[in-house]
């Protein structure tokens, strides 16, 4: 079964007008059907949060920003279709299709899906878990393609190589002429489609190996060390460090909010319903914690406060879930190419007792912001029966956001 769908309207894609004819000829095929078992996470690594955006969204952004790329086809595991759709929200013109049991089969299916009424002339096949591919390397790969000739992004082997048996050295291996293959691997579309069709069901390491076996010439284009593939939790940490190192304008801002208790409403804190005999009064769902967090995030980019973006006078926000407020703040930061490095949150009230719910609340906020859980800290305290919180009249929330801009 093969399906392919276009999300949104491709004609609406921004920034591609002046090179439209050139753009329509080059496609990126992103392989995102893998299970990523080595990560040991609750979902495949391409969907894991990487400082405010899923890994896949960062990879796609690298290609979507390229005027030369006219189409982007993502091969996915349909089991993760909803996660994929959530991860690609905001991309105007992403196509996707269902992958197969092996990487090679997934690539073949992606190539077949591209072979419609407007097939590309050139295709760049890229791993979803390499989000740090640069515009320069994409350009270089495209430039290296010729008739009957593909290109492989690769880095030279720098370390000396040894062969060992049972932990004992047996010989040295000459590292000269040895390269570590990366992606994208770029090919004339028709030639690589034919090569895949011819070798369907066989098992090649990658597309360059398959292409070469089929008689295509494959030239090497210098890659870079930052274009590594995220495979293990250590790679994920390396990816976070690399991204942070590119964002050195550090912004710290605070947010504060108070809502009073009232009868007959659910108590929602951080997007989580907390069992209690009263809820909080407010125009929206009165999620005092998300409001404080939203104001802190807006503060990091000087974007005003939550009331300016979502006025209580506006009927649209009546009983609205505050998820969308914090997502909006996160989107504004993403549009500045910012990353959210940390959220520190405090709730102040006498009742209900919040310690049993802290993990769920912090986890939900991490999910909303596409952050790893250790980047969201939540504390709960009382005010020793002093003041309005002490008298049980309402809940106060205090938030500090750390955001880094390029
Ligand atoms: Mg509020």
- Uncertain runs are 8-24
Our measurement of the CA-to-CA distance between the termini, rounded to an integer number of angstroms, reads: 43 Å
Could you tell me the strand content as a percent range?
A: 25-35%
Count, helices: 13
Small-molecule binders here are: magnesium ion
Question: What's this entry about, in short?
Answer:
It is built from 13 helices and 19 strands.
Protein described:
- With 406 residues, the protein is an alpha/beta fold.
- 29% of the residues lie in helices and 29% in strands.
- The strands form five sheets. Strands 1-6-5-2-7-11-8-12 form an eight-stranded mixed beta sheet, sandwiched between helices. A five-stranded mixed beta sheet has the order 16-13-19-17-18.
- Helix 4 crosses helix 6 (189-198) and helix 9 runs parallel beside helix 11 (323-335).
- The protein binds magnesium ion (MG).
- Residues 257, 259, 282, 288, 291 line the site of magnesium ion (MG).
What order do the helices and strands come in, and which of them pair?
Blueprint: E1 4-6, H1 20-23, E2 26-32, E3 49-50, E4 53-54, H2 55-64, E5 71-76, H3 81-87, E6 94-98, H4 103-114, E7 122-127, H5 135-143, E8 149-156, E9 161-165, E10 168-173, E11 179-188, H6 189-198, H7 207-213, E12 217-222, H8 233-245, E13 249-262, E14 267-269, E15 272-274, E16 279-280, H9 288-300, H10 306-309, H11 323-335, E17 339-348, H12 358-369, E18 376-381, H13 387-390, E19 394-405
Parallel strand pairs: 2-5, 2-7, 5-6, 8-12, 17-18
Antiparallel strand pairs: 1-6, 3-4, 7-11, 8-11, 9-10, 13-16, 13-19, 14-15, 17-19
Helix pairs in contact: 4-6, 9-11
The structure holds magnesium ion.
